[in-house]
Amino acid sequence: MTPIDSILARLTALHPKRIDLSLDRLQQLLAALGHPEKKLPPVIHVAGTNGKGSTVAFLRAILEAAGKRVHVYTSPHLARFNERFRLNGALVSNDELAGAMEECERANKDAPITVFEITTAAGLLLFSRHPADVLLLEVGLGGRLDATNVIDAPLATVITRISMDHVDFLGDTLEKIAAEKAGILKRNVPAIIAAQHGDVLRVIERQAARLKAPLKISGEDFTATEERGRLVYQDDNGLLDLPAPKLYGRHQFENAGLAIATLRAIPSLKIPAAAYEAGLVKADWPARMQRLAQGKLVDLAPPGSELWLDGGHNPDGGRAIAAALADLEERVSRPLVLIVGMLATKDCEGFLRNFTGLARRMIAVPIPGADKPLTAEAVADCARNIGLPATSRDNLSEALDAVRKLDLEPPPRILITGSLYLAGDVLRENGTLPS
Which positions fall inside the Mur ligase C-terminal domain (predicted)? Predict the structure, then answer.
């Protein structure tokens, strides 16, 4: 067990609820730490259901291409806890992260607090101590009561696509979920909004009107479309003809457009056109339609096959993945096999329904160590219930062996999906850790 693991174990015992939305506990801790949230670089705050991490990845790549120093806070991590904290382009070191978390632990004095809250406090402490031009701050869950929502005056707020997820905490309708996400909007601060369902957009517009927050809405104030394999972005300030994003899938054109609109809504950053072009082709975000080219699991797959990884886990995420796979099929036809693990808190059938008629077969696997995982057989049952042929195996290696035994021609396209926790297992087992 590493020092960071030991700290996390102690903190979990203080407040065993994994999710308990509140700002009170964190605000008390931040006061004890001397209010690091008031000493941060300028913040861009990002909320939403799907696309938050990819949008942050595009923001970071463009800003860095423009020569800016950028801090990043994202969650959850995939393979290492350090992935949540990026200081001026590099993951925080074990020693510096452990030191910040221990400092927060001492200041908290055994008071009840969730792990995410004290993790956020540690991040704010680290970011306050390292000069930078921008801090990209991703919401953990919701927005209004999320631990990241302690920033009074960000440069901008961003809301990606909103869909049904985390209904136990955010509400059981899109309107309720939208109200929670819109809680990050701030008075007189520009808000950049992805294309949304009409009811969702009306909730956001009402909150923006109350706060006099200027809105930039995809499809109304800016567009980002694919034309002849390139991204064409247009707003009131003109048109950009840009290369296709490095991140694969038509949904990434939308995420890239949201990032571009955000930076163009902040004139003080002075981002040159060349930085948008360079950033799109450099952006990296693991486990989002990621092609695994080498590694232990790649070697276990059938010779000549393709192995892809995506951490999508809700119906809208599944829809985006399925569209990307359909585009791949149109370019190079291969039989598709899914390897899927999911949590019991997710809409298993809703996610898998996107792949009926597209996937030849599904193989379900468990997610060891995850909170509330579905058994592999339960995931397989979900698939069978919607007419998707499915079996189950005990682990990833056995699942890939089962794919080999299918003896498909041409060699298959294999997608491992259903959970970010499973995606982390894949990256660890394959030996391709995020850096």
Answer: 307-419
Q: What is residue 218's DSSP assignment?
A: B
DSSP output for 149-212: TT-SS-SEEEE-B--S--HHHH-SSHHHHHHHHGGG--TT--EEE----HHHHHHHHHHHHHHT
294 in the same domain as 215? no
Q: Is 13 exposed, middle or buried (0-12, 13-18, 19+ CB in 10 A)?
A: exposed
The SS3 call for residue 43 is strand
User: Helix/strand/coil (H, E, C) string of 299-349?
Assistant: HHCCCCCEEEECCCCCHHHHHHHHHHHHHHHHHCCCCEEEEECCECCCCHH
Q: Give the integer Cα–Cα distance in Å for 45 and 154.
A: 7
CB 41 within 8 A of CB 134: yes
Cβ atoms 61, 282 nearer than 8 A: yes
Task: Give me the helices (H) in 45-173, please.
Answer: 52-65, 94-108, 115-129, 167-170
Distance CA(120)–CA(30), nearest Å, equals 10
Q: Could you tell me the residue range of the domain that residue 294 belongs to?
A: 290-430
Partner residues linked to 294 by β-bridges: none
Residue 1 has pLDDT above 80, yes or no: no
Whether 277 and 335 share a structural domain: no
pLDDT on residue 22: 81
Q: Is residue 64's pLDDT more than 90?
A: yes
Residue 3 buriedness (CB in 10 A; 0-12 / 13-18 / 19+) = middle
Q: Do 113 and 186 share a domain, yes or no? A: yes
Alpha-carbon distance values, 360 to 29, 302, 336, 412 (Å) = 52, 15, 5, 9
Does residue 45 contact residue 184 with C-beta atoms inside 8 Å? yes
SS3 state at 272: coil
pLDDT at 361 over 90: yes
- For the chain, how far is it from start to end, CA to CA, in angstroms? 21
Residue 88 within a domain? yes
Question: Which helix (H) or strand (E) segment is 138 a member of?
Answer: strand 134-138
DSSP H or E run through 392: strand 390-392
In this structure, the strands spanning 70-73 and 90-91 are: unpaired
Residue 305 token pair:
């096959």
In a domain, 241, yes or no: yes
Which pair of structure tokens corresponds to residue 344?
Answer: 């019991």
Edge-first strand listing for the sheet containing 230-235: 222-227, 230-235, 238-243
Q: For residues 114 and 209, what is the distance between their CA atoms, to the nearest angstrom?
A: 33
Look-up of token digits 């036809």: 333
Residues 221, 314 share a domain: no
pLDDT at 237 over 80: yes
